[in-house]
């Protein structure tokens, strides 16, 4: 039973952190110019369609600023 609680706690913590990071990204997105918002949205759509969430995370890891 204790392992189940620990597993559920870990799962909930993951989604809380995911939600917080999503909010941060949306805040940064909202600060972009309209032109950059359109470019970012188009790029995100291509990545999601091709690879899903895991692909987006990998893409972000490999980006060079």
Keywords, separated by commas or semicolons:
elongated; 89% helix; single chain; mainly alpha
Number of helices in the DSSP assignment: 2
Mean pLDDT: 85
Order of helices and strands: HH
Shape: elongated
Number of strands: 0
Radius of gyration: 16 Å
Unreliable stretches covering 5 or more consecutive residues: none
Largest sheet: none
Give the proportion of residues in helices: over 70%
Distance between the termini: 46 Å
What does this structure look like?
- The protein has helices at residues 2-30, 34-62.
- The N and C termini lie far apart (46 Å).
- The chain contains 2 helices and no strands.
- With 65 residues, the protein is mostly helical.
- The longest helix is centred in the first third of the chain and has 29 residues, at 2-30.
What is the topological layout?
Elements: H1 2-30, H2 34-62
Task: Describe the structure concisely for a colleague.
The chain has 65 residues and is mostly helical. The chain contains two helices and no strands.
């Amino acid at each position: 039973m204790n392992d189940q609680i620990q597993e559920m706690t870990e799962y909930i913590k993951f989604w809380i952190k995911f939600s917080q990071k999503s909010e941060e990204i949306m805040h940064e997105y909202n600060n972009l110019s309209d032109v950059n918002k359109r470019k970012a949205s188009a790029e995100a759509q291509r990545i999601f369609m091709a690879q899903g969430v895991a692909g987006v995370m990998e893409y972000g890891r490999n980006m060079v600023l």
